[in-house]
Amino acid sequence: MKKIFNTTFSLPFFFTIFFLEMPAIKNRDTIPPECQVTKWNLPTELKPTALKTENTKNLPVLVQRLPVGCCENDDSCLDARIYDGEQEEIADKKALIKSIDQSLKYLRTRQAAATYQRYKISGITRNRVYRSLQRFRELVLSTNSPQELQTAIEKEFVYYQSIGRDSQGTVLFTAYYEPLYLASRKPTKEFKYPVYRLPPDLKSWTRPHPTRLELEGADGLQGSQSKLKGLELFWFRDRFEPYIIQIQGSARLKLTDGTETSIGYAGNTAHNYKSLGRTLVEAGKLPENGVTMPTIFEYFQKNPQDLNVYLPRNNSFVFFRETYGRSAHGSVGVPLTPERSIATDKSLMPPGALALIRAPFPFVKNNGELENRTVSRFVLDQDTGGAIKGPGRVDYYLGTGDIAGDRAGVTVSNGQLFYLLLK
């Protein structure tokens, strides 16, 4: 979410620059309320009645239903981006096809076969998911408009809707991206905050694993005194950058010697992830509602000393490997596609499957302002995340660099999640 600068800067200096450049968000939606939300919610007759009890372990997380259908003159119902030919949308059909092909590749693996043997939702099998993707791919290539594609889907597919976090179908959407940072292969006075390789003996570590505080210290500089000694991979100037990389799971690096490379997720300690925003809310430092990355950054701009207090409260710690410029990969082992890949809880949702998401997301207008638009997008479920738990959470992948980071940092919205499978 941050910019690459050629000069050294302090943490408060960076945050000042960030907030001077961060565009305001406006809302463009003119969709009637009944089309925005109500008709997309889980129909009353399909809501799991068991949710009224305390026994929630055996609840269905996906409920089969008919396709939603579109309100008249509601373009947000259709994934028009596939067919538009303007500006950044020119190559989007190719991007969607590429993402479909990546899921098809995954579904042919032994990993997919083993995963779907354990998958517990009746009717959702690897073969059905695979055939559904093949047919959807054919339809994307053979149709000439979003309306034509929607008609074909309603004829041939059924929807499996997530019950969400409220049994109404409400899903909380956030977004993630691949940051681009300046880094060094060697520690210097300026570059002193490391990310670390996966410990070769991690499986033998005594549980509970050491916490973040025990591994790197409150200031993030004590790794050489812990089990992390000798595992340093790259060094960064900013205390916050290694932490952001751990949240996002990968990064592209511009090195001080002029070369470029990348790092990707290699593993993590056995601790549950705790979001920094939640930590600050619980400490009474931020209000309950409206927490985004900009509000978190603003807090630390005013209170930089608190980085050493609140970053260590996330006990989970993530390790990396150098990926030598390879694009960011998801948990199913295939490259992620910007705005066509999502992360969900893989203990519940079908990996590699075709999904439809509908929610407000921020887009950059020609004048640089961010504007929220409610959109529908066909996506592939190709990733997971430490904070993405339960049927009511989706993380939307937005790509690499500054703009993706600006958008991801302010993406917090409610919407709906559907999986599309052939009848």
UniProtKB/TrEMBL annotation:
Enzymatic class: lyase
Record key words, sorted: Cell wall biogenesis/degradation, Lyase
InterPro entries given in the database record: 3D_dom (IPR010611), MltA (IPR026044), MltA_B (IPR005300), RlpA-like_sf (IPR036908)
Keyword Cell wall biogenesis/degradation: yes
Membrane-crossing residue ranges in chain numbering: none
Classification via Pfam families: 3D, MltA
Protein name: peptidoglycan lytic exotransglycosylase
Record flagged with keyword Lyase: yes
Stored SMART domains: MltA (SM00925)
Upper classification of the organism: Bacteria, Bacillati, Cyanobacteriota, Cyanophyceae, Nostocales
Catalyzed reaction equations: Exolytic cleavage of the (1->4)-beta-glycosidic linkage between N-acetylmuramic acid (MurNAc) and N-acetylglucosamine (GlcNAc) residues in peptidoglycan, from either the reducing or the non-reducing ends of the peptidoglycan chains, with concomitant formation of a 1,6-anhydrobond in the MurNAc residue
Domain Lytic transglycosylase MltA: 180-321
EC number: 4.2.2.n1
